[in-house]
Amino acid sequence: MSSRIETFADHGASRELTCDVCIVGSGAGGAVVAAGLAEAGLDVVILEEGSHLGRRDFTLHEGDAYPAMYQERGSRATADAGITILQGRSVGGSTTINWTTCFRTPERILAHWARHHGLDGLDLDAHFAAVEARLSIAPWPVEPNANNSKLREGAEALGWSWEVLRRNVNGCANSGYCGLGCPVDGKQGMGITYLPDALAAGARVLANVRVERLETAGGKVVAVHGRAMSAGAPVPDGPAIVVRPKVVVTACGAINGPALLLRSGLDAGGLVGRRTFLHPVLGAVGWYPERVNPFWGAPQSVGSHEHIDRGPDRMGYFFEAAPMQPMLSAVALGLYGDELHELMRELPHLSALIALAVDGLLPGDEGGVVRLGGEGRPVLDYPIGPALQEAWREATVDLVRLHLAAGAELVGTPHVPLMLIRTEAELDRVRQASYASGHVTGLSAHQMGGCAMGSDPARHVVDAEHRFRGVPNLFVVDGSVLPTALGVNPSETIYALAHRARRFVGEAV
Length: 509
Description:
By secondary structure, the chain is of the alpha/beta class. It contains twelve helices and 24 strands. The two termini are 26 Å apart.
């Protein structure tokens, strides 16, 4: 794949390129679109801020992976630091470091979009089938590791539903280190699937280029302005890169994408950056007498949607497992000093189960807002309001119950500091605790919204064909177009929407 990927070492002087389509971002949206357009004979240039890394670069050391492959070296967070945001930054985007869990968009969500956002003709089935075939998406056939088995065992003991999850893998070694890059190319991320397809058809990828703004004239985008940056640099430190395309696709995610549009003076009447959703996550840790080794095995192979629908006035949530590599665990648990040291000693006997809240579906739930901070960097204001706090409270109670039902001797809640629970008789302590920002350790690995798709120009940034309102040659194709959160991991939805968007982008050239 590397023969047509330029990296920082190749960016020795300022350059100007022309092409049919310039795509900003090489992840789930950008790579799928790029492959289809290049295969149709269009001249495609992909600009990617992150570095080009392959399996030989994946050392499986967290100290290497987070600085190299995560936004802000793994320290991205909401403005009040209430929710840590895990998001990819390399060729392939978050598909390089995600945990491979794939779901089709639930019918209940598609129905909600049709009813509330005018999206009643998406017709995604054929697109789902196409990406599932290309990415080897299928139910995980291997017995769950002990970490995921705790979720299954707890759900069965409580009489709750659970399911085997689908993963985009082929030749998976079942190591459990998906979040650090796959050293055997078992994960079917964009770097070994759709990007090679695009390159084989003639597309060009320029890595280590941060796009700073889109230049508009006469109501259209006429140039994409970026600068090269060395691997790991916090700001660009290389020459200018200018691309003059016929059509532009932004596919750089639900935080960087809105920020790019805002830096370019494109705010769609104040809508860009609004309604940003995170699937806000809380986790609970169980101590088990037997070894769980939560750092080994497929990170997510079992899930439960028992509490996804809690009625029209309460936010739903769903359960999955989370791998517990040491650095990730330390960040997620929010401990320091002797407490952290003691917990790390017991890591082989721990299990981490997580609850993901489904934001954006309740009336009045507007999620967060992406705005510009110093030097044009993205800042996400995300209020942890009453509805989310109620969902987090009940979800934490249920996480404790899951662990206890699976045989945990002790359960630690996501509070700062940890609240330790031994029996269900103590659940009132969990209910009475605070779930406000700073009182619990929140996480997000699913960023959605900020450029909502829909039929109403007064409410939606892009139309049903992904076209930015009022700019006919600008398209947005990534998770930012989702008008609500999904209640499932979003990668396959983004793949399918991108596969569908190929037609509309191609017709605009």
